[in-house]
């Protein structure tokens, strides 16, 4: 309990929600808070943060997830975006920098790698028996 209270007290996103740190607020609902990213990858890069302090998405109650995506959609529509990414990372090795669930809306205005999210997609080919094994393992737990 002490570490959770400490996390809440030091979490930059919790401070933004409380108004302790100023932000360029876009949309606020009972469950979510959205604002412009102050270190944007492109013009209009925004964040959507649940008001529940969960570190990873699987720890967040479903109603917060259901609230976040319509906000992402509204932000994309308000900017008239044709191309954009919705990004959400869980854990340091998955590039999560702030220990509070958050979603990025990242406009991709140009075809090159100079603006917006730049990613590689290192696909792998798995043998069919390995795919079946993975499928059965996951499906059996759903």
UniProtKB/TrEMBL annotation:
One of its GO terms (molecular function) is catalytic activity. It holds the Pfam family HIT. GO terms for biological process: nucleotide metabolic process. A motif (Histidine triad motif) lies at residues 100-104. InterPro entries: HINT, Histidine_triad_CS, Histidine_triad_HIT, HIT-like, HIT-like_sf. The active site is at 102 (tele-amp-histidine intermediate). Residues 12-117 form the HIT domain. PANTHER family: ADENOSINE 5'-MONOPHOSPHORAMIDASE HNT1 (PTHR46648:SF1), HIT FAMILY PROTEIN 1 (PTHR46648). This is HIT domain-containing protein. It comes from Serpula lacrymans var. lacrymans (strain S7.3). The lineage of its organism: Eukaryota, Fungi, Dikarya, Basidiomycota, Agaricomycotina.
């Amino acid at each position: 309990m002490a570490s959770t209270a400490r996390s809440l007290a030091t979490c930059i996103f919790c401070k933004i929600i409380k108004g302790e740190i100023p932000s360029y607020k876009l949309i606020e609902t009972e469950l979510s808070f959205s604002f412009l990213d102050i270190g944007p990858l492109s013009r209009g890069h925004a964040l959507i943060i649940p008001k529940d302090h969960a570190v990873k998405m699987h720890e967040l109650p479903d109603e917060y997830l259901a609230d976040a995506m319509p906000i992402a959609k509204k932000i994309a529509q308000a900017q008239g975006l044709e191309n954009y990414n919705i990004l959400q990372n869980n854990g340091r090795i998955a590039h999560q920098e702030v220990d509070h669930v958050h979603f990025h809306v990242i406009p991709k205005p140009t075809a090159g790698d100079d603006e917006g999210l730049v990613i590689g997609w290192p696909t792998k080919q798995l043998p069919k028996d390995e795919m079946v094994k993975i499928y059965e393992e996951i499906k059996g737990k759903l």
